[in-house]
Amino acid sequence: MVAQRELPVEERKQLTSADQLFTYTLDSLPLQHGGQLGPVTLAYETWGSLNAQGDNAILITHALTGNSHAHDVQYPDDPKRAWWNLLIGPGRPFDTSRYFVVCSNVLGGCYGSTGPSSIDPTTKEPYSLRFPVVTIRDMVSAQRVLLEHLGVRQLAMVAGGSIGGQQALEWGVTYPELVQKVIVVAATAALTAQAIAFSEVGRQAIMVDPLWQGGNYAPGHGPAAGLSIARMLAMVTYQSEEAMEMRFARQQARNKALPTPSRTADLAERFEVESYLYYQGESLAKRFDANSYLYISKAMDLYDVSEGYSSLEAALRRLRSKALFIGIRSDFLFPAARVRWLAEQVRTLGGNSTYVELDSPHGHDAFLKEWGQMTDALNM
Amino acid sequence: MVAQRELPVEERKQLTSADQLFTYTLDSLPLQHGGQLGPVTLAYETWGSLNAQGDNAILITHALTGNSHAHDVQYPDDPKRAWWNLLIGPGRPFDTSRYFVVCSNVLGGCYGSTGPSSIDPTTKEPYSLRFPVVTIRDMVSAQRVLLEHLGVRQLAMVAGGSIGGQQALEWGVTYPELVQKVIVVAATAALTAQAIAFSEVGRQAIMVDPLWQGGNYAPGHGPAAGLSIARMLAMVTYQSEEAMEMRFARQQARNKALPTPSRTADLAERFEVESYLYYQGESLAKRFDANSYLYISKAMDLYDVSEGYSSLEAALRRLRSKALFIGIRSDFLFPAARVRWLAEQVRTLGGNSTYVELDSPHGHDAFLKEWGQMTDALNM
Prior knowledge:
The structure is a homodimer.
Chain A: E1 12-14, E2 20-26, E3 29-30, E4 36-37, E5 40-47, E6 57-61, E7 100-104, E8 119-120, E9 125-126, H1 136-149, E10 155-161, H2 163-174, E11 181-185, H3 193-208, H4 224-238, H5 241-247, H6 272-287, H7 290-302, H8 312-317, E12 322-328, H9 336-348, E13 352-358, H10 371-378
Parallel strand pairs in A: 6-7, 6-10, 10-11, 11-12, 12-13
Antiparallel strand pairs in A: 1-2, 2-5, 3-4, 5-7, 8-9
Helix pairs in contact in A: 1-2, 3-4, 3-7, 4-6
């Protein structure tokens, strides 16, 4: 990797917080399923400083609907301001006084990185469904070029949860020589049939919305109802029966005026859990691109760390960095037993692997909620 | 109850099998949430003969998308011909050589009983969303009038799974003096927040389909895509991670030509589990009315056996029949632990209650698959 730390001023855009969103554009990226995509822009944020050796970098990789804003320097103690806010900063597991922390929006995303809503230079129109299928491996190879551009020679750590965890695992397997430690949170070697099924139900809900229009909706006029429904379902899979029972049980809705995704009146009394899901659906529909949702969720489904290798063992044997796997007791999308099994496989194959389980009722989302347990696990 | 066994010939309609579908029409049914509905027709089938005392009847209650065809006399050994086929017949748990077995399509359904697709006599058009909210208790009170019409004075058993199980429980609590034994399979006192959430995602998918048209679609031109998506999701919740992994894992689809509900092309490779769900979705959309799906699924969500009583204990204390509760180890829609808890509550309150758990990987649907274990449990 070559050192190119200095970024042109025009690449810098002020965020609402004190953090800056940078972009870097690659002319072209070869894709796992064939062909090239270019130009490819990655939007990213950084915290802390890279040392002269270029070996104190940490890459943070985000989940399906996440973005580069993993930390907020202006409000570093508010978990709502940035998705791993409390884990990043001086003295925290991703210690910005010692490390150069980077988080980029994934390829295929809609927070500044090239995705289906980006303008295709050949047609001057959004790619929509002409955007190629991108994979977790493609996301990671784009990140690698970005890090090279930033002067990073070695990653001290790469860490993420959910599809961020898939990316972390993929980093360790694809670029074993570049990573000292991978931290795979609530992710497995490949999704279960059940998780793929939930994922496809969400995608079909998006595509049945007449506003989707074969993917060719105008910006801001996308299938908000379909995307809301997909999000409602996803939110159920990110939680757990236990957590939803503690929080909602069979409470009647406090807010009966909140519109439903389909804008239909309630058939009968409304439960609080329904109101909550309408709110979550609408929130995502306002901030996220439906086509990005289709592509990134498909990348999640397609991910199989063994792809291109003779076996899963052959893939995992490549992992030579330290590996920390964090499972969540109540996660049913990426079950803890499967995360533990993966950690054990790596150890059996001679890898340096540790497994920690979060004892949380919060399901898959626990990696975005259990700050104390996450901090303890990351400090192991 | 009065004896009125003889049915007018015009009420009889030949089924494709040797079984006959009968109908009985009530002038009016008072509803739990107020008001009256009338006329109310119930479609039903019977097997075996009612004795002179009118006390050897068994009522079988069906699940969400089920119907009265629980048994098929022409093909009594084919589980695909009728939903509880192998449990009904001479020498079987619901022994037609000793008992008079009745199964009726639920109020709100679309297999001959009055539901939202029926003609509203005041407007001469289908009720659609002008159909009133009906509850499990309403379904049961309609069944009670039907049984009275048939001359049944005592039910030897009432048995059902899923919302059929809710109906069985409701029978025991509402009409304790009329039932000798209730058999509640894969059902609980009330749905969890998670189950309500899945249910509402399905309903929203139906209502976002432009063909739904506020419920006013023409017969045969309903929201097939939306109903397919709702069914896809429901099918996931009726199975289990374990069962889906055994059956599908990450196999590629054999049939890549099967259309998706939204009639869109595949974004990338198709998994077998996706093909399977498309097929299941389309099958239901061809045979079931979308508005019936909305109303019956809502009845399932609304069901709480304690409604109208001072407490759950007060409701369960009314249960004086023998009660058999059957849970399923891998059921996550009606978790076994909650079925067991309900059985224990009944026993604690002085009831005669037994709990049996099916050791099956097939999730909620095990009550429609595990014939050996079901037979053993029912014969206890």
